[in-house]
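Hi V.,

Quick status before I head out on leave. The structure for the redesign project is tokenized and pasted below; the design run finished overnight.
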């Protein structure tokens, strides 16, 4: 999804300007891949291996679609689109194995991300991670402990639909005990920003290194845009 949404007019009207520090929101829901860690190139490696092993030319658009759908829905999508004989569960296991091997030593948080998250928690803002990634892959990381950074972690397998629907953000808000209107969602993909806005949440679009990121559309759809975390971390340290 790279163009401006046809139904953008149905998004809730913008509320008062969103302040990121000091925070003007009561709870924060944060994506992982792209937003907190630059991992698009790792998942591209996984996709290239997956498609190549089945004699399918690498498809950039398919790779972007899988990033939105998550593991089980993405595997089902691949089975139907490419008429694969694989079982969905076997594809998910394959992606988990490949992803965990890459994440184990190669993933670190983006500069300033941990500092800003810890400042939010110190200010009394509860945090939830909302990721289409799998617990097995997240748990393989040696350099990032998401459980120590977030009050709640919601993975794509725990909700019915991908980030083109608001399910994962609503579940994160529910676990935090927060009303949607009190939440700010930090995301790097357009479907996630649009879903958060339609759920009545504020949306912060976070720039990343993925060359496929539709920056203009994200800046238009979100309540706020940031290029990264370092400026936010510096502002929170200056409090």
């Amino acid at each position: 999804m790279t163009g401006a949404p046809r139904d953008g007019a149905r998004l809730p009207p913008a509320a008062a300007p969103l302040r990121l520090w000091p925070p003007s929101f009561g709870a924060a829901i944060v994506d992982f891949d792209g937003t907190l860690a630059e991992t698009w190139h790792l998942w591209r490696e996984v996709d290239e291996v997956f498609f190549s092993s089945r004699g399918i030319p690498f498809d950039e658009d398919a790779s972007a679609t899988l990033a939105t759908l998550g593991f089980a829905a993405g595997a089902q999508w691949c089975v139907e689109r490419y008429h694969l004989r694989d079982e969905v569960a076997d594809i998910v296991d394959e992606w988990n194995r490949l992803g965990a091997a890459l994440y184990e030593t190669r993933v670190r948080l983006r500069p300033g991300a941990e500092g800003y998250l810890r400042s939010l928690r110190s200010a009394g803002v509860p945090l939830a991670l909302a990721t289409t990634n799998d617990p097995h892959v997240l748990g393989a990381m040696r350099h990032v402990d998401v459980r120590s950074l977030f009050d709640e972690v919601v993975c794509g397998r725990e909700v019915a639909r991908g980030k083109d629907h608001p399910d994962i953000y609503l579940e994160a808000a529910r676990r935090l005990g927060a009303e949607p209107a009190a939440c700010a969602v930090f995301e790097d993909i357009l479907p996630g920003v649009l879903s958060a806005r339609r759920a009545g949440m504020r949306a912060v679009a976070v720039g990343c290194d993925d060359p496929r990121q539709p920056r203009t559309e994200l800046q238009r759809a979100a309540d706020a845009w940031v290029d990264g975390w370092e400026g936010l971390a510096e502002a929170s340290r200056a409090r």
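Above is the designed sequence. The first strand starts at residue 27 and ends at 30.

G. will cover questions while I'm gone.

Best,
W.
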